[in-house]
């Protein structure tokens, strides 16, 4: 036995609000890093946008079906708003305001489905401790 008292740090309490904020911040950060990396490479391939689905599946697996789906589509909402602002300020190219919104909704539905499915599978088949 040691004569020194053990320094047991308390785990922070994971409230529902904290879990929601944590999931959304991690979703925005991870997809922002992916978008930044694709912009820095200058050569976006077909594998870059597919990694968005990998991020959505990981968020769904980690935070559950609802939190994971919301966290995976929150960055898409930010990207849609940024594209609309860029279009309104006179940026060239793009799909226009209505096209951007429709594309954003379609992508959000696909990504949310991937995150929801991963979270639902995990909650359904999660091993339960013996009673």
Short key terms for the protein model shown above:
elongated, mainly alpha, 131 residues, 0% strand
What is the fold's blueprint, element by element?
Layout: H1 16-41, H2 47-63, H3 65-88, H4 96-125
Short description:
The protein is mainly α.
What does it look like?
There is one protein chain. The chain has helices at residues 16-41, 47-63, 65-88, 96-125. Helix 1 (16-41) packs antiparallel against helix 2 (47-63), helix 2 (47-63) crosses helix 3 and helix 3 packs antiparallel against helix 4 (96-125). With 131 residues, it is mainly α. The chain is built from 4 helices and no strands. The two termini are 34 Å apart. It is elongated and about 70 Å long.
Strand content: under 5%
Distance between the termini: 34 Å
What is the radius of gyration? 19 Å
Count of β-strands: 0
Q: Please state the average pLDDT score.
A: 86
Number of H/I helices: 4
Q: Report the biggest beta sheet as strand number plus sense, adding barrel if it closes.
A: none
Structural class: mainly alpha
Order of helices and strands: HHHH
Give the uncertain stretches in residue-range form. none
Binned, the helix content reads over 70%
Which geometry do the CA atoms define?
elongated
């Amino acid at each position: 036995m040691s004569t020194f008292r053990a320094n047991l740090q308390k785990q922070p309490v994971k409230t529902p609000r904290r879990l929601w904020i944590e999931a959304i911040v991690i979703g925005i950060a991870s997809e922002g890093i992916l978008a930044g990396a694709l912009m820095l490479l200058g050569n976006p391939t077909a594998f870059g946008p597919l990694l968005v689905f990998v991020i959505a599946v990981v968020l769904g697996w980690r935070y559950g079906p609802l939190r994971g789906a919301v966290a995976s589509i929150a960055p898409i909402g930010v990207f849609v708003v940024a594209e609309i602002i860029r279009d309104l300020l006179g940026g060239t190219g793009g799909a226009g305001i209505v096209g951007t919104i429709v594309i954003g909704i379609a992508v959000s539905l696909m990504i949310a489905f991937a995150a929801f499915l991963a979270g639902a599978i995990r909650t359904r088949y999660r091993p339960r401790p013996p009673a």
